[in-house]
Automatic annotation (TrEMBL):
This is DUF58 domain-containing protein. The lineage of its organism: Bacteria, Pseudomonadati, Pseudomonadota, Betaproteobacteria, Burkholderiales. The keyword Endoplasmic reticulum does not apply. Residues 189-216 are annotated as: Disordered. PANTHER family: SLR1927 PROTEIN (PTHR34351:SF1), SLR1927 PROTEIN-RELATED (PTHR34351). It comes from the Bacteria. The keyword Repeat does not apply. It comes from Undibacterium fentianense. Keywords: Membrane, Transmembrane, Transmembrane helix. Residues 199-214 have a biased composition (Polar residues). The chain crosses the membrane at residues 35-53, 59-79.
């Protein structure tokens, strides 16, 4: 236990990057560390035992076996280090998610050398994170996504990433860490059963604002937050999702021209901050599905009436960042 604590402290003080690194990162010699694994420690003890036994009994064959195995260990050190060194790492922009969903950070790994890389484990440094194992052919690029649960609204920064390998014999462990400068916006979780949208300031009745779910007018690309019952399964059955096809949602009409202002101050005072933001998040999605012109009043921020994906994302982003820097009541 003491050795494990000292090792973790050593990593924090000396080995790991202190700040996020923007752009491309190259795993140069000083970034790749090679240490014996459990099998390597056992192998080293075996070599010592063979050498002592050969010396005590003057066994030439024992000396030969000891030197042969020691030579294999030295060659293995080179191959293990070379399997990880000089990889090029980069990250892309992940898509926004709602609180509690799985956030995906796209990672790009490039092998620029005429050397195949095998059995590279990549994952977040968190102890509970699931690692992915990849092979990299010479002069090839692999794109993958590392996943983690979004546990707090606002900006989710990419956790520290660890790459490690035991190739080829498993005696040594070569590893390196990377803290990319990447983040994903996490929206508040929409309320599951929110009340109807508030009455419009333009005199639109509550009935006319919520009648858009009754008249089918066509289909459109799936948007984050669309309920499962609105998915157009007839169209989805014709799409190959594995080849990059997108989900399709049914589109309803009947509320075109309606306007509504979603005001944080008008939400129920008995709800706490997170519940109020959750309700506003659900109302934004409902107004967008109904094709209404909607605006948002949030403290000192006011977003004018509009609709569309960019407007919806702007409203959800404002809700996600609300109250994180200062206390609001």
């Amino acid at each position: 236990m003491l050795i494990k604590q000292l090792t973790q402290r050593f990593k924090q003080l000396v080995l790991l990057e202190k700040t996020a690194e923007p752009g491309e990162v190259i795993l140069k010699q000083r970034r790749v560390f090679t240490l014996p694994g459990r099998a390597g420690v056992v192998f080293g003890l075996m070599l010592i035992l063979l050498f002592l036994t050969s010396t005590n009994y003057n066994l030439n064959l024992g000396f030969g076996m000891t030197y042969l195995l020691a030579g294999l260990a030295v060659v293995n050190t080179l191959f293990t280090f070379r399997n990880l060194a000089y990889l090029r790492l980069n990250t892309g922009q992940g898509e926004a998610v709602f609180l509690g969903e799985v956030a995906e950070f796209p990672i790009r790994i490039q092998n620029t050398q005429n050397l195949a890389r095998y059995a590279i484990h990549i994952g977040f440094l968190q102890s509970s994170a699931i690692e992915q194992i990849i092979d990299l052919p010479p002069n090839q690029i692999i794109n993958l996504k590392l996943r983690t649960i979004a546990t707090q609204r606002g900006y989710l920064t990419c956790p520290r990433i660890r790459l490690q390998t035991w190739f080829p014999l498993g005696l040594l462990r070569a590893w390196s860490t990377w803290l990319p400068d990447a983040k994903i916006i996490v929206y508040p979780t929409p309320e599951e059963t929110p009340p109807p949208l508030p009455s419009s300031n333009e005199g639109q009745s509550e009935t006319s604002q919520n009648s858009g779910n009754e008249d089918f007018s066509g289909v459109r690309s799936y948007q984050l937050g669309d309920p499962l019952k609105h998915l157009s399964w007839k169209h989805i059955a014709r799409v190959d999702l594995d080849m990059g096809g997108k989900l399709v949602s049914k589109q309803f009409a009947g509320a075109n021209g309606g306007k509504v202002i979603l005001d944080f101050a008008a939400t129920a005072s008995l709800l706490n901050l997170e519940q109020r933001l959750s309700r506003l998040s659900a109302w934004v999605l409902a107004a967008e599905r109904a094709q209404m012109q909607y605006g948002l009043r949030l403290g000192g921020l006011e977003i004018e009436e509009n609709q569309g994906e960019s407007h919806r994302n702007a409203c959800l982003t404002a809700l996600a960042l609300f109250g994180l820097d200062e206390q609001h009541v």
